[in-house]
Write a sequence for this structure.
């Protein structure tokens, strides 16, 4: 089973979170994960993404929203077939006081729904710790959120395996 993690990271914070999520997903047997940083290539490997059962999107939070690079991906990569795939999202943010990380995730979820993706975060269904809509990670508290990010990756991989492994 394949999982793609598509994110934008300029300073490295969002990349670090993406790596923790990938490590959690790889803890599930038979999972292959590839990470695609839109800062390095705004047209990531289409074949791998289309072969993936799950696609996780990550963004830094800018003005309580996803970054423009992620919006550009959703708006211009119309030939990427995402319908029917499990979709999830995460965000990073510089300040714990704005609440923008959750709004950034919700904006990504809107785009995933338009693409026909099946949205999953594990919610309260997997018990504590709850991950309601996706992890948000404040830069100053990154190390404190490492374990929840790994758990998020594991839960996404487990659900994708449950849904799509034949």
């Amino acid at each position: 089973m394949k999982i793609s993690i598509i994110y934008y990271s300029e300073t490295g914070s969002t990349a670090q979170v993406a790596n923790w999520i990938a490590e959690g997903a790889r803890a599930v047997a038979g999972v292959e994960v590839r990470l695609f940083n839109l800062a390095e290539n705004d047209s990531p490997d289409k074949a791998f993404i289309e072969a993936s059962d799950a696609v996780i999107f990550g963004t830094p939070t800018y003005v309580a929203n996803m970054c423009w690079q992620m919006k550009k991906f959703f708006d211009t990569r119309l030939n990427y077939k995402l319908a029917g795939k499990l979709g999830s999202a995460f965000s990073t943010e510089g300040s714990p006081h704005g609440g923008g990380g959750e709004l950034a995730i919700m904006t990504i979820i809107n785009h995933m729904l338009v693409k026909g993706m099946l949205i999953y975060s594990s919610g309260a269904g997997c018990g504590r710790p709850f991950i309601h809509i996706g992890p948000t990670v404040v830069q100053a508290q990154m190390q404190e959120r490492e374990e929840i990010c790994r758990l998020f990756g594991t839960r996404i991989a487990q659900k994708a395996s449950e849904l799509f492994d034949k």
In short: The chain is about 40% helix and 20% strand.
